[in-house]
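Progress note, sequence design subtask.
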């Protein structure tokens, strides 16, 4: 997910669309911003962090990232639609394990792309693994979260719309409806089970990345008008990828 809407970047500079109802706009796709004071409300906080040109850095294609061979898979890469396997307990042995190495390198790619979240299929690894840092700031490493085999066990009935984008869908965004809070079960890199409740911005990041683990991408959740608005950009990505893509 780009940290200024996904993954998320300034809407004025992207192929973007939104439902016609009036509501606070936000930018979150899961790209990075320069820190700004946080207003009291969720919507105004997101707008402050992600929607102004002075404060927002758009997500970028990092290309080759030092310290890893992982690369961001762009739509319509088949890995984005392929099934993702659960990670067995014997592979969750903590620091030094292959899964820990993958998670560490995913953070490298995420930060290089100025993102706030990344799921394993976005780097061509079809396993149920996601990483995120809601601040998008590598210096705030204490906020880094790794989720192995996550499951959403409860959604709030209350929902809201915010603008999202995605590191696998560069230069585009659109409004997506998601639950305001969720309850989650998952494992850490040592196999320890955890239960958490996420709300607001963190809940949205999690839901975006969790979708990737089910082969769902944010464009699947756009309104009909929203999909039409970004279709020209999707056509460009499909053309750039060539044969063998999975729409």
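Output:
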């Amino acid at each position: 997910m780009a940290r200024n809407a996904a993954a998320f970047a300034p809407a004025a500079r992207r192929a973007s669309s939104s439902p016609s109802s009036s509501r606070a706009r936000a930018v979150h796709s899961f790209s990075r911003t320069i820190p700004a004071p946080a207003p009291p409300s969720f919507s105004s906080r997101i707008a402050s962090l992600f929607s102004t040109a002075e404060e927002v850095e758009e997500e970028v294609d990092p290309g080759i990232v030092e310290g890893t061979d992982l690369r961001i898979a762009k739509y319509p890469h088949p890995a984005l639609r392929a099934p993702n396997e659960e990670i067995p307990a014997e592979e969750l042995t903590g620091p030094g394990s292959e899964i820990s190495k993958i998670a560490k390198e995913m953070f490298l790619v995420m930060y290089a792309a100025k993102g706030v979240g990344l799921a394993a299929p976005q780097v061509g690894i079809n396993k149920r693994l996601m990483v995120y840092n809601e601040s998008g700031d590598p210096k705030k490493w204490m906020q880094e979260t790794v989720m192995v085999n996550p499951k959403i066990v409860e959604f709030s009935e209350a929902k809201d719309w915010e603008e999202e984008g995605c590191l696998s869908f560069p230069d585009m965004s659109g409004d997506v409806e998601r639950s305001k809070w969720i309850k989650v079960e998952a494992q850490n890199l040592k196999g320890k089970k955890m239960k958490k409740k996420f709300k607001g911005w963190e809940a949205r990041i999690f839901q975006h990345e969790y979708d990737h683990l089910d082969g769902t991408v944010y464009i699947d959740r756009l309104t009909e008008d929203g999909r039409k608005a970004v279709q020209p950009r999707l056509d460009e990505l499909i053309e750039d990828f060539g044969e063998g893509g999975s729409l």
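Residues 224-241 form the longest helix (18 residues). Work on this subtask will continue into the next period as scheduled.
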